[in-house]
Write a structure and sequence with these properties.
Blueprint (H helix, E strand, L loop, with lengths): L2 H8 L3 H9 L6 E2 L5 E2 L4 H13 L4 H13 L3 H33 L9
Antiparallel strand pairs: 1-2
Length: 116
Amino acid sequence: MRIGTLAQATGLTRDTLRFYERQGLLKARRRANGYRDYPPEAVEWLGYIRTAQRLGFSLQEIAANLEDVERAADPDAYLQELLRDKLRVIEARIDELQALRGVLYSRLGEACPLRT
């Protein structure tokens, strides 16, 4: 399918699709006339990418894990482990933010809150 058709099917812009291709997240063949030709499964794949982004994965993380997911004996189990890892990172960040909140609250009453 051509880029315009894929853009319409996914709700993404052509620029976004080209960006994903440059990042290695999307593959297209080139027709003899130079136009990109995307496989039909690209629509579903782009849905996965968008879902992964909504779950907190960066495009760099998605790209870095792409080959491992494709090569995994059990891709679903591999993805579950990636989700667990992401959850651990988020929980650690929440702990850091809660500690920072405590420090900020403690400095609110100080005359010069930026002194160490």
